[in-house]
Write a structure and sequence with these properties.
With about 180 residues, the protein is of the alpha/beta class. The protein is built from seven helices and five strands.
């Protein structure tokens, strides 16, 4: 039974990517043994970090809690919007905060945009950053175009059947990587 952390990376007012986080939490809990937990960066209200966690003299309890969630998760699913071809500073901030916590951690990426391309431009730059942190990025991705009409505020997909079909392949890749990682540990 796997424990998957879903990172909601947008902290913008009026964000829509949290809808996709809710969808995946519900999908995982309904279709797979294990647990899923949303870690919402908006709720943490982290400052800009000036140093990695291991070098901080007195990390706050929130920083320690966040690091422990990442460390203890079997896998991570990052849901990120695309902002001008990149991912949010809030996400870069927490990726750079940690180091060993990302080592060989299976990480799947779902991208979100208001436009027709579903945040596909952000995938490569985010994968590269995670590779540099020695994370294991899952080859499958989950771009979500037109997020405002694709998911409602409760995380329900407008086309549930087609979305569930795409999610099945995406999540199965993450679960395969989690299983392979657990066998190699």
């Amino acid at each position: 039974m796997s424990h998957i952390i879903i990172i909601s990376s947008s902290i913008r007012t009026g964000r829509k990517s949290d809808r996709v986080c809710l969808y995946f939490k519900n999908y995982l809990e309904s279709n797979h043994p294990g647990s899923a937990e949303i870690v919402d960066l908006e709720q943490y209200n982290f400052p800009l970090f000036t140093e990695r966690l291991r070098l901080l003299k007195d990390p706050t309890p929130e920083i320690s809690t966040f690091a422990e969630k990442i460390r203890s998760a079997d896998g991570i699913l990052i849901v990120t919007p695309e902002y001008n071809g990149g991912y949010p500073a809030s996400l870069k901030n927490v990726i750079d905060l940690l180091y060993e916590e990302w080592h060989r951690k299976p990480v799947a990426i779902a991208t979100v945009s208001a436009g027709a391309f579903g945040g596909s431009q952000v995938i490569t730059s985010l994968q590269f950053t995670l590779w540099k942190m020695r994370a294991w990025t899952v080859p499958a991705t989950f771009p979500v175009p037109n997020v405002e009409t694709s998911f409602d505020e409760d995380g329900n997909a407008a086309d549930k059947e087609a979305t569930d079909k795409r999610a099945k392949g995406f999540i199965n890749e993450l679960l395969w990587c989690i299983e392979a990682n657990s066998r190699m540990a």
